[in-house]
Write a structure and sequence with these properties.
The protein has 156 residues and is mainly alpha-helical. It is built from 5 helices and no strands. Helix 3 packs antiparallel against helix 4.
């Protein structure tokens, strides 16, 4: 059975498409993301025995939050590009949900790597953290705030 070309149709439905589409869902997504970033920062600092967590949070949370959205957007762009580039080959040989999962993996990895390095370079530069504390905190943020929703297909 031959499939017809459905590039735009298939690109419009993966869950990571919400990163490109303005919607009222952003009124929920923005504060939830801020809360998750704050919780991960707080728990990471507590685990490392950092004393002045409130000061650390005030100095870095806006950078962490903005970097998280930028990284998620870049990961979404990578997924979009990969889906467009491989559409004919992948869609003719695999089920749609598997294709969405497989094209989501590079997006999550790219976003996680960006979260790690950008937070390491930008978010903590005006704090009193040691290099090791910065590395560990950035790693915790990358692991626990990566956009794993990109792996979830819309259609089952």
């Amino acid at each position: 059975m031959k499939r017809k070309s459905t590039t735009l149709y298939n690109v419009m439905f993966p869950i990571w498409f919400f990163f490109f589409y303005p919607t009222y869902l952003w009124l929920i997504i923005l504060p939830v993301n801020f809360g998750i970033d704050s919780l991960v920062l707080w728990l990471s600092a507590k685990r490392q025995g950092i004393e002045n967590r409130k000061k650390l949070w005030k100095q870095s949370i806006l950078w962490i939050w903005m970097i998280g959205f930028f990284s998620d957007f870049m990961g979404g762009l990578a997924c979009l590009g990969l889906m467009i580039a491989t559409e004919h080959w992948l869609y003719s040989s695999m089920p749609y949900t598997l294709v969405q999962f497989l094209t989501g993996i590079p997006g999550v990895i790219i976003a996680g790597v960006l979260i790690y390095f950008l937070n390491r370079w930008l978010s903590f530069r005006k704090t009193d953290l040691t290099k090791e504390q910065i590395r560990k905190t950035a790693l915790h943020l990358a692991i626990f705030t990566a956009p794993y929703a990109m792996l979830v297909p819309i259609y089952w």
